[in-house]
């Protein structure tokens, strides 16, 4: 399967949230944030988080080619 890398944006917040929660559930020791804390974030918080990219790293998501 081929993928393309796309930046996280305010519009992609549902996918960003799903990916982040999956990462926290899968590897909780790899992150400072807990799954419980992330799960309590509001939709507005997730929109903001997806739209903001800290200078020290980029937030990207992989999508199968042909996916919206």
Structure description:
- The chain has three helices and two strands, in the order βαααβ.
- It has one domain.
- By secondary structure, the chain is α+β, with helices and mostly antiparallel strands.
- The longest helix is centred in the N-terminal third of the chain and has 14 residues.
- The two termini are 15 Å apart.
- α1 packs across α3.
- The chain is globular and about 35 Å long.
- The chain has a two-stranded antiparallel ribbon with strand order 1-2.
Low-pLDDT stretches are none
Mean pLDDT: 84
Q: Biggest sheet, strands in spatial order?
A: 1-2
Strand count: 2
Helix content: 40-55%
What structural class do the secondary elements suggest? alpha+beta
Radius of gyration: 12 Å
Shape: globular
Q: Please summarize the sheet with the most strands.
A: 2 strands, antiparallel
Indicate the proportion of strand residues: 5-15%
End-to-end separation in angstroms reads 15 Å
The domain tally reads: 1
Q: Could you state the order of secondary-structure elements as H and E?
A: EHHHE
Give the helix tally: 3
């Amino acid at each position: 399967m081929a993928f393309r890398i796309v930046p996280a944006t305010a519009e992609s917040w549902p996918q960003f949230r799903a990916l982040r929660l999956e990462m926290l559930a899968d590897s909780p020791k790899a992150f400072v944030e807990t799954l419980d804390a992330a799960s309590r974030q509001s939709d507005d918080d997730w929109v903001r988080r997806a739209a903001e990219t800290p200078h020290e790293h980029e937030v990207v998501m992989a999508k199968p080619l042909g996916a919206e």
